[in-house]
Amino acid sequence: MSRLEQLPPEPAEEHFLIPLKGTKELALMLDGNGVKADQVRLVKHDTQVHVVHAQMLIEMKPDMTTSQRSGNQPVGKTLPTKEAVMADAVARAIVLANDANVHAEIGEFLDKKPGRSFGEKPFRFKLAAAHEQYSVVDKCLKCNGATTNPCKTCNASGSAPCTGCVGNGFTQCPVCYATGQQQRADGSRMPCTKCSGTGRSMCMTCQGQKFLRCAVCAGQGRTSCTECDRTGFWTHIFDAHWHVEATFELERKMTLPEVIEVVELLGVQKTATEGHAEILRLVPEVVTDKLILPYAGLLPVAQVEFSVIGKTHPAVLAGLHGRIIEIEPLLDTYIKPGVSALVKLSKGPMAAAALVASACRFKLVRQVLAGLTHHSKGHVYQKLKNEYPLVVTEKFAKATIRYADLALLALAEGPRWRGLAVGAVAAAAAYAAYFTTPAREAVRGMMIGQRLEQHLLAVDVLIWALGCGMAVIAVKIFAAKALKKILPQTVQVKEHGLPAAGRQGWIGMPITLVLWLVFAFFSQPRAEWLTSALQKIGINL
């Protein structure tokens, strides 16, 4: 099997470097958020390397494809019955579990998968190194191995009733036509000279024998069996391939419970695929028909204490990257002044420049403001969770996003109204072009041709939605331009997207709806659905 390892006597030095990596990670998160990177120091650390025991259970199971051919033509291994074939194929799994070539193939397959398949969900794959052919030879069920069957035409007698006389031995006299008399020249009648007055004559086909040799079986009474092509046998061929069914599991009895908790926190598969642990695949074992591949993951875990601006913060690190998995949310306190500035900005534009500058002194606040100018609040929150795990509380992160959103809305309040005005004018122009020109009638004509006239209202509604979208986009564009001028360069990012439309976007919906209805009312001819609606409320025009 490829790439087999043994547990080293001592863990590699890289496992004991995780406190330094964790310090760098924390410094990177805090730097620019009221703390400088050099103010984050490692005070104390205790690193231990734990072994995560796991195994991959491998079962080999057969897949059968069958075919058959006439005659006794076996290939491969010949067995008496289909049941015997299946039993032999199942028993072969024990042989395959001990086969070095099979081990090598499985090892190569596992090595190609991320993390060497550590933590993989159950999967299966076909073994190229395992193939067998079986044959079962049976007597033909129709002829029971005799190669011939009784002739159905003559009922195995070899002869059949004469077709000329239908088995009677005689036929109608061709002279008197079975009357037995002939007419003389004077009109009197006399006995037929051909049949002596009997009205019948001997059958010339069978010479009066009544039967002929059966033409189908040539008088043999049996015909060749067409089912087995006159061989008397059928050969059933079973083409067997084996596939692997693999199941991964942690060996919880051999691994400390607290280590299992860390692995599950990191993610069992991610422990390998993201390189948190050094993964070793040990020498395989065979138990009955199963191949067991033992895994050992060397996972470093460190208890540390960080000093941030002179204050001590205990933490727990795990994995070769020194990921922080436990620490108090110390960032809340450091960025609080920036969030307070956002709160004041959300209440009005007074002293906006100073408050923006105050808020943007903090990297996290800058990231939130930059994110909200291009993405939704949910997207920004997810990004914060990924970039600042544990060091900021969920409540504080959501509050920062909320007040940053309100601040951006307040900073671009005026431009949003101007954008709404421009967008409403653009929507009105679109409605006018549709309702007051031949455009709508042209659409109606096309829909009549396609027998879709009943869906004309849906097209009209789509035109309203288009105008409404134009108004909302205009609000966002005007807000984006205003924010680009107000926010500092440190907040500008090269990302696609527009800020939220705010309440102006919601107001744009009823405004464009009213404009749409007005143009639909004055269209020529008037929109039929609108006329029908007015009639239902008692207005006839």
Helix content: 25-40%
Number of strands: 17
Assign the structural class, choosing from mainly alpha, mainly beta, alpha/beta, alpha+beta, or little secondary structure: alpha+beta
Largest sheet at a glance?
Answer: 9 strands, mixed
Unreliable residue stretches:
none
Percent strand: 15-25%
- The end-to-end distance, rounded to whole angstroms, is 88 Å
| Number of contiguous helices | 16
Provide structural commentary.
By secondary structure, the protein is an alpha+beta fold. It has 3 domains: 13-137 and 238-306, no CATH class; 331-411, no CATH class; 413-536. The protein has 16 helices and 17 strands. It has helices at 18-30, 82-97, 100-112, 257-266, 268-273, 331-334, 336-346, 352-359, 363-372, 377-387, 394-411, 413-435, 439-449, 456-486, 502-521, 528-536, and strands spanning 40-70, 77-78, 123-139, 148-150, 159-161, 170-172, 181-183, 189-191, 200-202, 211-213, 222-224, 233-250, 278-281, 285-287, 290-308, 311-318, 323-327. Strands 1, 2, 3, 12, 13, 14, 15, 16 and 17 form a 9-stranded mixed β-sheet that branches. Strands 4-11 form a two-stranded antiparallel sheet. Strands 5-10 form a two-stranded antiparallel sheet. Helix 9 packs antiparallel against helix 10 and helix 14 (456-486) packs antiparallel against helix 15. The radius of gyration is 47 Å and the shape is flat. The mean pLDDT is 87.
